[in-house]
User: What shape does this take?
Amino acid sequence: MNELYQPIETLAGVGEKRAAKYHKLGIHTPYDLLFHFPRTYIDYTKPVMIADAENGIPYAVRCTVVQKLAVAFVRKGFTIYRVVVTDGLTDFLLVFYNTPYTYQMMKPGEEYYAYGKLTGGFLRREMQSPQVQKVEHALLLQPVYPQTTGLTSQMMRTNIQRALMYLAQQPFETMPPSLMQDYQLIPLADALRIVHRPDNAKELEAARHRLAFEELLQFQLGTLMLKQRSSGQTGIAMSKSTTIQDFYDNLPFSLTNAQQKAIHAICRDLCGQKPMNRLLQGDVGSGKTAVAAAAAAFAAKNGMQTVLMAPTEILAQQHMQTMTDFLAPIGIQPVLLTGSTKAKEKREIKKKIADGSASVVVGTHAVIQKDIEFASLGLVITDEQHRFGVAQRAALAEKGGYPHKLVMSATPIPRTLALIIYGDLDITVLDEMPKGRLPIQTFAVTGGYRERAYGFIKEHLDVGEQAYLVCAMIEESDSLENVQAAESYAETLKQGAFSAYRVGLLHGKMKPADKESVMAAMKAHEIDLLVCTTVVEVGVDVPNATLILIENADRFGLAQLHQLRGRVGRGSVQSYCILVTDSKNEDARERLKVMSRTTNGFAIAEEDLKLRGPGDFFGHAQHGMPPLMQAAFCSNMPLVSETQMAAKQLLESDPELMRPEHQPLRTAVLQLFAKKGENGLN
Ligand code: ADP
Ligand code: MG
Assistant: This one.
């Protein structure tokens, strides 16, 4: 019996309640738990001396207990436990509130590591609620797991240790021996043990390398296999002699060169036997919708239907408006299908789609993917806004034979990486903005300028413009930390500086419907200032918003700052972006300067790749990528190309990974591409 694959409840110390929390993270067995990797490590290898430590920043120190002070019962339900310790030079206090355990464990004369933030300084400094471990059996690189309500890193460390014992009894391996040898990879069981309990930085690096290699390899195997399969399909070839001159003639502007090139590439694909699989990448405002409309016009002239899918209702409505503006003048009337379409109307629209009288259908993914029958579906366009996941990509409309597929994304990704991340797609880039746009003016300032910045924002609100204020502690948009920060920031502004204005709040933990109604209110100018975490619905067009202020700007990647900045500058009025940072770090400040210098998303993405490595482009589940945890830490492009080469070699010799020695890899790839319950590769 292999304990690794039993329900997680079978682990000692995991009851029903904790199991439920693990299930929420997608962890159902001890095996799954082993692949729940630390977010970072607390480094105890270089403890600091208290005299050298600043207040407010967490430090690891090594100290000996001098004396345990008497427990202070301040009032009912509030008890303070204090221990006087010394680092050899300076005495200081470890202070615990309402938690007796560590206090009880500590003994005078014994040595401990403590990790926490310092306060005070007048008489004696204090470390508040520190983490403490005994020196003898300390983990010098102590794993910290991604934050989850009700599951502490300490609990996870204990549970994982048990899972590691099971692993030691029955190690498993996914990599064929030849690959392990060629690329000098350590065994999987070793790598798993080490990431969860590293002895030193060097072995941790080898373990992470092995895990990152594997994640990237699986990812690339998956995309390459998708590509292999789609190349064997035959689609609907449209007529090369089709003309859409009337479409061009009726546009209110002339297309950019980039748009024209994109339209040519797409129409050429539409006339091919093989179904198109193309990604249209272009910065916010580069005019992707006009390209989509041209493609839809081309298909309509061939008697084929086009569907345009958007991730949210409000985006679908926006697209409906634009498509109608572009297509109605040439006699094509798009129809709209979303969650809020009334039943009766929905029936009528579905009828029009089924009998072919509606040639362009706009709607939300959810609605369209359900039970719509098309008369002759020729082209499926998805507007993903964000980067999007392999599973969604693979699940794209398997309706009516093999329609041509076009995916639009507003996230600029450097070409070298795009070829890998979107290895199954052909890529077209809109790298040119329509003429006559006012570039957004960007400033990086320190917190000392905040009041002046508020004043500047108010001047703009007073003349009827709107603003965003982004407040996030860390990048993961829906972390509890961020939600709390945004909530209290919004409250402070409502009570204080912006009490005379309508302040709204948007964060990642809100229900989709609530998010949409806030965005709708913003669009309808029922909100002047929207406080938000990084969720600000990408792609929602509020042309009246002219200002965005981003707190803690140094904590974000440039690409993400660029996305955020793209919320403004969508109208004809001059827009501004204010980046606030108190970081004293030179690199961080240098990065922010890049933002002031350029508004070209691709240039910024290249810069991000240089400065932060490719990890950023792989790391965030919120972008719809599978969560490549280890790859997120990977800072070298060579690893990315190395794994691409390995993937190609493997598939050349065994296109479907059917050989016995490739079975474990095949299974892993299928799992990776089937995340979110959609069938990517089966
Ligand atoms: P994207 O989806 O790429 O962010 P949109 O397609 O929404 O951009 O276009 C942004 C705005 O620019 C729209 O109002 C659109 O009508 C306009 N637009 C698109 N192409 C051009 C062009 N070539 N010249 C001027 N305006 C354009
Ligand atoms: Mg758009």
Observations:
- The chain has four domains: 3-41+151-197, 45-138, 245-430, 441-598.
- The first strand starts at residue 40 and ends at 43.
- Confidence is low (pLDDT under 50) at residues 621-625, 676-682.
- Residues 674 and 680 are 5 Å apart (CA to CA).
